[in-house]
TrEMBL record:
Pathway the protein acts in: Carbohydrate metabolism; Entner-Doudoroff pathway
Source species taxonomy: Bacteria, Pseudomonadati, Pseudomonadota, Alphaproteobacteria, Hyphomicrobiales
Chain sites annotated for binding [4Fe-4S] cluster: C156, C223
Gene responsible for this protein: edd
NCBIfam families found in the cross-reference section: edd
InterPro entries, per database record: 6-phosphgluc_deHydtase, Dihydro-acid_dehy_C, DiOHA_6PGluconate_deHydtase_CS, ILV_EDD_C, ILV_EDD_N, IlvD/EDD_N
Span of the signal peptide: none
UniProt domain Dihydroxy-acid/6-phosphogluconate dehydratase N-terminal: residue ranges: 68-381
Protein name: Phosphogluconate dehydratase
Cofactor descriptive note: Binds 1 [4Fe-4S] cluster.
Amino acid sequence: MTVDPRIAAVTARIVERSKPSRETYLSHLREMATKGPFRSTLSCGNLAHGFAACGPNDKANLAQDVVPNLGIITSYNDMLSAHQPFETYPELIRKAAREAGGVAQVAGGVPAMCDGVTQGQPGMELSLFSRDVIAMAAAVGLSHNMFDAAVYLGVCDKIVPGLTIAALSFGHLPAVFIPAGPMTSGLSNDEKVRIRQLYAEGKVGRAELLEAESKSYHGPGTCTFYGTANSNQMLMEIMGLHMPGASFINPGTPLRDALTAEATKRALAITALGNEFTPVGEMIDERSVVNGVVGLHATGGSTNHTMHLVAMARAAGIRLTWEDISELSDAVPLLARVYPNGPADVNHFNAAGGLGFMIDQLLSVGLLHEDVRTVWGKGLSSYAVEARLGENGAVVREPIAKVSGDAKVVTTADKPFQPNGGLKMLTGNLGKGVIKISAVKPERYVVEAPARVFDTQNGLQDAFKAGELVGDFVAVVRFQGPKANGMPELHKLTPPLGVLQDRGQAVALVTDGRMSGASGKVPAAIHVTPEAKDGGPIARIRDGDMIRLDAVTGSLEVLVPAEEFTAREPATADLSHNEWGLGRELFARLRDNAGTADEGASVLY
């Protein structure tokens, strides 16, 4: 199967750029892998502590050191819908492991926070850095050196990227990711948006808003819109870390349980004790990363992954850049319309053919690398399937249909919704940023208007409520970057800006903050770097400066004479209110040492 020359060229560039770091990474991985099953290196006292709580049979098996032991890293908590289903997974996994002749132990838990709960709240300022905390917490669990492979139970925004970083840091071990699936469909996305905008305009009250939100987010599983959580699941499957067809099966169903048991048995089958050893650090390579980026573009996925994928790749010694992501976007058509890029949710997407259909279509035109390693043990074409429950309760897979089940939701490669993936890098005298245009109408790709500058999202909301945001303008919301306040999501800006846009005003957003997978119909240059806290150009913008955001040419410019603009002193802001409360004081070192957005906004690399 021939790979499109554009995909091949970007992949080759990443391979060349990554050679020094990738070679070092693989050298370390192979040194760890040659030491064999690691329980043999533990003293009797070490080992006794490691299996003291096991039952007699598991204890005997671990003592012999010939039975594979599976470490479970879980993000379970019962407050958050996406992670609540994981409560029952450890026992299911232990049972499946015993059936396969192995042992499974919960190696550790990691925190899992929900951006939906913390949206617009102080706790959101911990969110981005929770990714790196998750990676470190998982590493603590696996550091006991008791395991031949690991399974990772995680779903949402920062959890899966953090777990992936951890898995690649323990790249000598096989790794399988096990999802929980999306909640069943509730209130339609169009109706939810309508109620939110009415609330923003003061036309309905909090009771009506809460009723609509509760009907949207109503049960166990991920939110059903195509934000970061569901983009995560797509990535894990298209990168070969899930079982084929596993991503979007609802929780609490027999098929979901069967997929979990199957993933357990597969993880045990690919350890160094068998004949299919598949260490995840060898399995995930530059081609896998490119496949993830292609999937992100083809599905109109989360802008958060312009940071997360960079950080995830670095954990494997792979150097991915925004330029790579933007160039791939130009080569990959948009094949899915899932909210916020359309009215459908992920359940509709899955019913229409879902990821199996997408993979098949992308492979058919050479936009994916088929010849990658996967946990399934076969190339990526084995993921162009639909998973079903067989008569005996096991998972069966059927080749995916060649025709979309709903052409308004997923389409074929020869009839794309738009010719590019909708994620672009913007550059100019304001620095670098990214924009998601898959939900933006083409006539709004270019906005040139005077700036209205705010240092908080509340400042913009107050101006909206006071009726001060009249005429065309570009909202500049700064001091929202990683070093300023942890880079919280700014989704509370979407309803008021959407209202003004619907009234006929030309509006856009420029921010060093982020907007995540729910970036919608308002053109938004986000993740702008250097950030204002670092004295970036965004800190020099003043009210009334003309700004041009051009998603066609990929430029982001302030139209002020260069000499005048560079002579300005960067603005400063009082950020003391971001430094304490709800744990923010514990994250001070992380804010101080955070990398830039285009480098993954990480404290680890």
